[in-house]
Design goal:
This protein is an alpha/beta fold. Helices cover 30% and strands 18% of the residues. The chain has helices at residues 20-23, 54-58, 81-85, 101-116, 119-128, 151-160, 189-194, 215-220, 238-247, 267-270, 287-304; strands at residues 4-7, 26-29, 43-47, 69-71, 92-94, 143-147, 167-172, 176-178, 181-185, 198-201, 226-229, 251-254, 274-276, 311-314.
């Protein structure tokens, strides 16, 4: 029996991994292919493939009887949680904190600015050769609410700092104080929504946040407010959002949708006042170097017997 480390990249492409012979490891490359690189029972560290069907990602888990670490390349781990919870005790599930913050925060600002400044209309105007001059909303002087204040939420606020917003408020599951100020609990959402011009969703998908943005949530938003979702599609009740968009009372910019991918003919494609990007918050040029550093660091921690970073849960 060997101690196998399954990586979604060739080990030769990941600088800083422990020497396999010295560490008593065998590195195996698997990125979701039909054939496994070795017996899953020998795998002790599983680096989960990125942008692969979740059913494929969890497929080898039931056979990984020696497994100790599951390391995702995603910030959210909702696609892995059910299968990991069924594993034997002592398996650590770790997310990719530190990999996606910069790219996702960039996209949150991109979607916000593009929506406010009318960029989709300008693109259409260019195609139609129409000069669509006029006054458009600015981000300056707007009140922004960030719903979900983990690493990505904080990175979004970092990037808002230079835009002269009137206020940036923060909401998370529980109240706390950060260097930038108070993080409000979810119970205060109704009041904060009624005061915010832009609402940015960056919360993980949990049982508590699934459908969080429902008719009641949307009804508390200000007339003319913008909803930006860089979290997960099911955080938003699509039917409720469509009903609000049809009235023209609010607008939306969505990097994630429910369902996803959004199928041809779905009413969100043609909904009034919506900008859609195809879940591209994470996959940018910033991804590869950061995920390589994370994988190398985590394998080194595992080999040294040191505490792992980014542990979401350990099975019991």
């Amino acid at each position: 029996m060997t101690r196998d480390v399954w990586l979604p990249l060739e080990a030769s492409d990941v600088t800083g991994l422990p020497d396999a012979t010295e560490a008593g490891l065998a590195y195996r490359f698997w990125n979701g292919g039909a054939d496994y690189p070795a017996d899953p029972a020998d795998c002790v560290f599983y680096g989960v493939p990125y942008m692969i069907d979740p059913e494929i990602c969890v497929r080898p888990l039931s056979r990984m009887t020696s497994l100790r670490v599951v390391q995702t390349q995603t910030a959210g781990v909702d696609h892995m949680l059910p299968a990991v919870r069924r594993l034997a005790p002592g398996v650590s599930l770790c997310n990719a904190r530190g990999v996606h913050e910069a790219s996702t925060a960039e996209l949150a600002l991109t979607l916000t600015l593009a929506s406010l400044r009318g960029i989709p209309g300008f693109v259409e105007g260019q195609r139609m050769q129409e000069w669509r001059q006029g006054f458009y909303p600015a981000l300056a002087d707007k009140s922004v609410l960030i719903v979900g204040y983990g690493a990505i939420g904080a990175a979004i606020e970092d990037r808002l700092a230079g835009f002269e917003c009137a206020r940036v408020a923060r909401v998370a599951r529980s109240e706390r104080t950060t260097e930038r100020g108070l993080v409000h609990p979810l119970a205060e959402l109704p009041r904060l929504l009624s005061e915010s011009d832009v609402v940015i969703l960056s919360t993980p998908l949990t049982e508590e946040t699934r459908g969080l943005v429902n008719a009641g949530f949307l009804g508390h938003m200000k007339d003319g407010a913008l909803l930006v979702n860089v979290a997960r599609g099911p955080v938003v009740d699509t039917k409720a959002l469509l009903a609000e968009l049809e009235t023209g009372r609010i607008t939306a910019a969505l990097d994630v949708t429910d369902p996803e991918p959004l199928p041809p003919g779905h009413p969100l494609w043609q909904a009034r006042g919506v900008l859609i990007s195809p879940h591209v918050g994470g996959p940018t040029s910033a991804f590869a170097p950061r995920t390589r550093r994370l994988l190398a660091a985590q394998v080194n921690r595992y080999v040294a017997g040191e505490p792992l970073a980014n542990v979401v849960l350990t099975t019991s």
